[in-house]
Amino acid sequence: MSTTHTLSARDPASRRASEPIALDPGIWRQILLMVRTQHPGLNRLWFDQMAPRQLTNGVIQVTVGTAAQLNFCQSQCQQPFTTSAQAITGRLVVVSFHCEHLPEGGVFNEGDQPLALNPDYVFENFVVGPCNRLPHAASVAVAEQPGKAYNPLFIHGGVGLGKSHLLQAVCQTQLDRNPSARILYLSCDSFINQFINAIESGEMNQFRYRYRHVDVLVIDDIHFLAGKDRTQEEFFHTFNTLYQGHRQIILSADCPPSEIPELEERLVSRFNWGLVARIDKPCYETRMAILQKKAKMRGILLADDVLCYVAAKIESNTRELEGAVTKIQGMAMLQNGVVDLELAKAALGESATPEQKRITIQQILDVVTKYYSVRLSDLQSKRRHKSIAFPRQVCMFLARRHTSYSLEEIGGYFVGWDHTTVLHAVRMVDEHSQAEVQIADQLAHLEAQLVG
Ligand code: ADP
Ligand code: MG
Questions:
Q1: Closest residue (by CA) to atom 11 of ligand 1?
Q2: Which atom of ligand 1 approaches the CA of 166 most closely?
Q3: Which CATH number is associated with domain 361-451?
Q4: Is the domain 5-99 a CATH 3.20.20.70 member?
Q5: Which residue has the least CA distance to atom 25 on ligand 1?
């Protein structure tokens, strides 16, 4: 019979490493507290339900409840928990996470690993308001009856408005209801990369089998298919096979199908076969409700005046609301957990200073015309010569990145540019800057002038 010792704080005993030691619940509480204090952004209410198992061979085994939680812990919590555990126990221990109920069929991504679903992205955590009522209702319907309700379901809207949240909520609900369902959730980028890899390694058959034998195929940010002719061709056949087999297809994008630049007409028409639903920016009341929810999930309470202040101050997108909660939470931890209006103002005021200085389109036009030695009247004309077209695209890119103007508004500064062409310009510059160091340098130089 093996004896089990209890590990208490800074236990100096030098036992044989392989001997299992039960973890004192008090120690675990201290470790948790330390993680929560030092990494407020990571904190989740469900941490309370983590079950620390014994300590064996220097490893503290911790059991979590769901596959998504496991993913979250393995990708983000390993280091913080390990560091805290070492500080509290005074030993070189490592924290490792496990889950006892991994789904059999499950959600899989590239390497047939359970997919990185965010445990926060479930329907219970999604606040419904006038801005997202339709896409939310459609997602719920699809999660309940995949392949029957709307096929495909196409959700579009600006960045940070909840598209990925809804897509993942559908996957997680499906998984709960039907653990053996084969669900494939991935970004469009992964789809493109895997397609290219499959061609290069001569494994197209496997690739096809993989995508054409699922119950639910969910592709996030499908607008990245723009201009990728061969991937579009392949996706066309994938789509047809799944659709004919009454398998559910769910897609998201930053614009409706018809506005994705350089997308084959037959795909545009297929994306419109089911339901196309738009997510808009949340209104004030919805922002309040989202803040409340996010704060609650992280175990902090925000007074009404704090909610009003933050909801009024941050209106662009929901991801930034979440960032605000993280900042406030960070400050609150330093001040014994009390969140009042003063603290919220201090937490957010700080970030409003240097880096988020308001940049105007006028300033952007100024630095770009000087840098590339072009005339403003040329930039704003319809001239398409490269020496003018490129600086113009750079202006659009910078305006998109550094101002909160919409694509339409940005297009309005130039003659004959509607929002699709602006979007195209922004993506072009983005792609070039990633591929060409020279262009990345030019952008860095211009941005330094703008924020400096
Ligand atoms: P997108 O994919 O549209 O860029 P995400 O789905 O990544 O946006 O959402 C950004 C953040 O905002 C996520 O943390 C998400 O949980 C949150 N969020 C967006 N909309 C809502 C909502 N209606 N209720 C709760 N959280 C939301
Ligand atoms: Mg997304």
A1: 319
A2: 6
A3: 1.10.1750.10
A4: no
A5: 126
